[in-house]
Amino acid sequence: MTLSTSGLHDDLSQLRLDNSFAALPSTFYTRLQPQGLTQPRLLHANEQAAALIGLSPRALQSEAFLRVFSGQQPLPGGDTLAAVYSGHQFGVWAGQLGDGRAHLLGEVIGLEGNWELQLKGAGMTPYSRMGDGRAVLRSSVREYLASEAMYGLGIPTTRALALVVSDDPVQRETVETAAIVTRMAPSFVRFGSFEHWASRKQPDELRTLVNYVIDRFYPECRQTPTGETADEKGAILRFLDEVTRRTALLMADWQAVGFCHGVMNTDNMSILGLTLDYGPYGFMDTFQLDHICNHSDTQGRYAWNRQPSVALWNLYRLASSLHTLVPDGDALRAVLDRYEAQFIQAFHARMAKKLGIQHWRPEDEALLDSLLKLMHDQRADFTLTFRRLADAVRGQTQGFQDLFIDRAAAQAWYEQLAARHAEDPIAEESAADDAPAQIRANAMDAVNPLYVLRNHLAEQAIRAAKEGDASEIETLLTLLRDPYRAKPGYESYAALPPDWAGGIEVSCSS
Ligand code: AMP
Ligand code: MG
Questions:
Q1: Which of 55, 112, 316, 388 is least surrounded by Cβ atoms within 10 Å, i.e. has the fewest?
Q2: In Å, how far from its chain's centre is CA 352?
Q3: Measuring CA to CA, which residue among 100, 130, 115 is closest to residue 34?
Q4: Cα of 314 to ligand 2 centre, how many Å?
């Protein structure tokens, strides 16, 4: 074995695999080979993600790496397949979908858990329907960056391992070029994977899938709260409870950073509570309560302020699939009834930290709502509004006021927050070395990112990538992995978007 000094492998063939999804019955997928890109070039590889599966930085530069992650060669030890699932799209039952342009290469045994590796854009599968199985450079760069940006924010997400490009033409509104992004997740099973078997009235397959997911990812659900072995109904209810809880926390995370997913269809909802499928997503610049980031979402179904309730709607679709195995609607509903309180509690906890409040009180909701309303009415920048609150706590309210047209209204709101802070003193002992205001402000900076993946930043990286230049991707990754700490020289990445940013349209076209 060639192990580099770091204990990481230089050679892909040294990875250890355990292809557990491929061990499910063959009705769950189709085995097939990807259609590789011609004359592929590695635009970027992610050393941090590679380390999770035991690969060294050197491995990323190898010929074998490029061949595997351009879809030209199978992953050594892998078992390539496309999975089937169904789903509700924009609230309507869409029937069978599946990995129309994704190939699961295999599941690598990592040091701290297993990771499935999946190519996105490596050609048609039996689930491609009208699609070409390809992904364009533009959307691949966006997915690659967003995965790592989310990770940097501490929000559960799929990761991205590699971005491979080529000159192969892909027809969208215009002719673009093809790319493949390799994603990593412990599992890519979605709510729609369960809906698939329930809708086809195949309870045995549904049970197989439920058992697979519980055994691998939710083994604690096999026990009752008192430590006895749960029966099937008990295990499934606990499983639904845990998925509900994780989904509620994920929504709180998204809302707290002004993230819009854009396509919260049930086939894009991870059963592990991860952010999954980065398409027409957006981190809001100007705050708008009902901001719609997906140009194709004409009804605003997935607007920012609707995300938490849409997630619950999606959980209802999951629960009704599980009803096949647990025919007790009241019990399933009782689990989902906990969602709202879980979400609100998690959201308030996050917003309290962002506002520099140590202990949330029910009255704080009015304070938060009045800020959001002010931001909405005055089109204030989401990220900078929160970031500059810490400066205000340090005594510099100018920057915060600058974000609002009506500076006096902004200042008046800030004075309410300052009064609230006065009732929420920083403990004496922690304030020993530093002024209490400084301690509070530092804590606020640690949760209010300065750098987020604004659309125009992604766009700049895409433009450079089209010229074969990955330096913007590299710069953004450096900033977004540590988004809370200001880096001298990178002021423009934290600034308000330029005028041209308003003209960027992101849609389902990818
Ligand atoms: P999405 O909502 O973008 O996650 O995709 C919904 C469904 O369409 C999934 O089954 C995808 O695999 C499939 N799909 C999206 N784009 C393509 C494409 N270019 N070729 C084949 N299938 C696609
Ligand atoms: Mg999808």
A1: 112
A2: 22
A3: 100
A4: 14
HEC secondary structure over 364-397 = HHHHHHHHHHHHHHCCCEHHHHHHHHHHHHCCCC
Q: Pocket of ligand 1, candidates 97, 134, 269: which has the most ligand atoms within 8 Å of its Cβ, to mutate?
A: 97
Query: How far does the centroid of ligand 1 lie from the alpha carbon of residue 353, in Å?
Result: 38
Nearest Cα to 276, choosing from 285, 287, 264, 284?
Answer: 264
The pLDDT tens digits of the residues spanning 356-408 come to 999 999 999 999 999 999 999 999 999 999 999 999 999 999 999 999 999 99
Pull the structure tokens for residue 323.
Answer: 């009803």
**CB atoms inside a 10 Å sphere around CB 497:** 16
Q: Which residues line ligand 1 (CB under 6 A)?
A: 97-101, 127-128, 131-134, 263, 265, 267-268, 277, 279
Nearest atom within ligand 1 for CA of residue 279: 3
**Other beta carbons within 10 Å of 26:** 9
**pTM of the full predicted structure?**
0.97
Q: Please answer whether residues 146 and 453 qualify as being in contact, where contact means their C-beta atoms are separated by less than 8 angstroms.
A: yes
Average pLDDT estimate for 7-31: 97
